[in-house]
Design a protein that fits this description.
By secondary structure, the protein is of the alpha+beta class. Helices cover 27% and strands 29% of the residues.
Length: 640
């Protein structure tokens, strides 16, 4: 990248949060450009706020009242003298409204033109547009303005299975797979509800579902001088619920002629809108016939997975964005070297259907020797207001096999205590024979589900017993295998130490002390404010709630009185979040398994189902905030 002409900005506002805000601030600092952070009340103590040169509060915790408030963002830029706004990804990154407001205020929007945003920001319009330029697309149709009956007629013409997805937005939010006509109405309602909530637009498009798709995207860059370049492709096939989990660059062994098609089609799509800045053109390839490519959308922003492209090209993509936004020529030479793989660490529980997890980070200890882009640090609060991704771990090597192995090793050394994470699941993916062989499709993760909960190892049980006995104070942590003087497996615990703990699935677990047990790796533990013990070992984390004899006795008496084998009448919230829909009326007769209430947290919607046949009595209303395990409805029978 040429540095003959310096970037003219002296102050840039970062209209985002978390790891991408920290990532942009890092480049701004390296370039000597003053950075301005914005934050909601929920993020007042977040790392990105402290790391910026200045920070401005823009509203309360809900994104709609803070990070999505264009007027508040523009006001923050004006008050701090920012010449440009970097939107990151998500939130306002593809907002025509923000780009227009920037133009009206004389502020540079670090992104493409309003026209490019208008065309490519709407999947249906983008599809029609690129078709006219000869870019191949998946068969489908735009459902905007159509009734459900008209959509059903069009769907029959395209053929099932179909993918229903919002025209606006991205990240897989609101996408629904429909196998046959019977499931279409429910999928449309759910997709519209999520689309309206997440993007403020409930328009949908429907496309034929490719059975074994691979998701390949191309990183493109354009400048104001008419140059558009492709910086190679990325493999984004490992997904769950259409949300990427592991990405890599380059892709896992697609044919050379297919790669040429991808790059050429991506450049053509970007050139068709005179694209300026960073963009990603996304394609589907049939894993069983990888000779054709199908355009699905263009993301008019920087992507979450941009680090893998940075690793194999040696380029700073944020610096390139700033350069393009300042009107300078890109002046880049594209050379791809080695292989990079990125894993997204989410605050979620894979064993509970990937439901999000919230809480205080008791300990965050990232691995050394690899790149880590993190939103959190020890003491951070993970709330239900935003996306559950809390970190990215990126490994680079000369070849794919070594890069995967390095990523697996790095994940084994990544410690997050205080919230549930997908780290152990990421390690499973890294070692899956199909992943190692590059035999990928977007349904691969589904074949591994459901997942069994991690059983505590002997070392974790001993660590939990020691912590519960008082060796570790609440909200403090310890690396038990290194730091506790005289601590060893097989030692005699204090008499007051409990011998039983409860796992997260409410199972009693004996805190045994087996002689001769050895840890798989470094054991780290922490005790939270409720007295629960979190123990991590080799990428696997368990949470145990110690019980003393009195607590255990009370628990057994309560179970006996309630009748431990009967089905409870209450439908409970599986995660903390907001009630976004009530799907039945109070007093309705329902059957076991009927959906009662929809709850949304961290951009994920989950339905609470009737636990038994009977009459439903609602305990919540739309807009209510609920805790995990809070009763939201009660279903009564004649007997009860």
């Amino acid at each position: 990248m040429s540095s003959s002409k310096p970037i003219s900005f002296h102050t840039v506002l970062v209209a985002n949060r978390g790891e991408i805000a920290r990532r942009v601030i890092r480049t701004l600092r390296a370039l000597g450009i003053r950075s301005v952070a914005v934050y909601s009340d929920a993020d007042a103590g977040s790392p990105h706020v402290r790391e910026a040169d200045a920070a401005v509060r823009i509203g309360p915790a809900p994104a709609a009242e803070s990070y999505l408030d264009i007027d508040a963002v523009i006001a923050a830029a004006r008050s701090t003298g920012a010449q440009a706004i970097h939107p990151g990804y998500g939130f306002l990154s593809e907002s025509v409204g923000l780009a227009e407001a920037c133009a009206e205020s004389g502020i540079v929007f670090i992104g493409p033109s309003v026209q490019a945003l208008q065309i490519m920001g709407d999947k249906a319009r983008a599809r029609d547009h690129v078709m006219r330029y000869g870019v191949p697309v998946v068969p489908g149709f735009d459902a905007k303005g159509l009734s459900d009956a008209e959509i059903a007629e069009e769907a029959e013409q395209v053929g099932y299975p179909l993918l229903v997805k919002p025209s606006a937005g991205g990240g897989g939010k609101g996408m629904e797979v429909v196998s046959d006509a019977a499931g279409l109405r429910g999928a449309l309602a759910s997709a519209r509800r999520v689309a309206a909530s997440a993007f403020g637009d409930d328009a949908l498009i429907l496309e034929r579902l490719i059975r074994r798709p691979r998701h390949i995207e191309v990183q493109v860059f354009g400048d104001a001088h008419g140059t558009v370049v492709a910086l190679g492709e990325r493999e984004c096939t490992l997904q769950r619920r259409h949300q990427k989990v592991i990405e890599e660059a380059p892709s896992a062994g697609i044919p050379a002629h297919t790669r040429e098609q991808l790059l050429a089609a991506a450049v053509l799509a970007a050139e068709s809108v005179d694209y300026v800045g960073a963009g990603t053109v996304e394609f589907l390839i049939d894993a069983d016939a990888p000779d054709e490519v199908f355009f699905i959308e263009m993301n008019t922003r920087l992507q979450v997975e941009h680090p893998v492209t940075e690793e194999v090209t040696g380029l700073d993509l944020v610096a390139l964005q700033l350069r393009a936004a300042a009107g300078l020529p890109l002046d880049v030479t594209v050379r791809l070297t080695g292989h990079a793989v990125e894993a997204r660490v989410y605050a979620e529980s894979p064993e509970r259907g990937f439901l999000p997890s919230t809480g205080t980070i008791l300990l965050f200890d990232p691995p050394t020797g690899v790149r880590v882009d993190a939103a959190i640090e020890t003491g951070s609060e993970v709330t239900g207001f935003y996306d559950p991704m809390i970190a990215k771990v990126i490994a680079f090597a000369e070849d794919r096999e070594t890069a995967l192995a390095r990523l697996d090793d790095a994940l084994a050394r990544t410690v997050v205590l205080g919230v549930e994470t997908n780290i152990a699941f990421l390690r499973t993916l890294c070692r899956d024979a199909r992943v190692v062989a590059g035999n990928l499709d977007t349904g691969l993760i589904e074949t591994l589900l459901p997942l069994a909960a991690d059983r505590p190892s002997a070392a974790q049980l001993v660590a939990a017993r020691d912590a519960a006995s008082g060796a570790i104070e609440p909200l403090r942590t310890s690396a038990l295998w290194r730091e506790l003087p005289g601590w060893r497996l097989g030692s005699v615990a204090e008499a007051r130490a409990p011998f039983i703990a409860l796992s997260d699935d409410d199972e009693e677990v004996p805190l045994d002390d087996p002689a001769g047990a050895r840890p798989r790796g470094l054991v780290r533990s922490a005790v939270d404010a409720d007295g629960a013990v979190w123990v991590a070992e080799d990428g696997h984390t368990v949470r145990l709630r110690p019980l003393d004899r009195r607590q255990r006795m009370r628990r057994r008496l309560a179970a006996r009185e309630a009748g431990s084998t009967t089905t409870g009448p209450e439908g409970r919230a599986p995660m903390p979040g907001s009630v976004v829909a009530v799907l039945v009326a109070d007093g309705d007769a329902v059957s076991a398994g009927d959906p009662l209430v929809a709850i949304e947290a961290m951009k994920m919607e989950h339905q609470v189902l009737a636990p038994q046949d009977g009459v439903v009595h609602l305990l919540v209303a739309v807009g209510d905030q609920v805790r995990r395990d809070q009763p939201v409805a009660r279903v009564t029978t004649e007997e009860s």
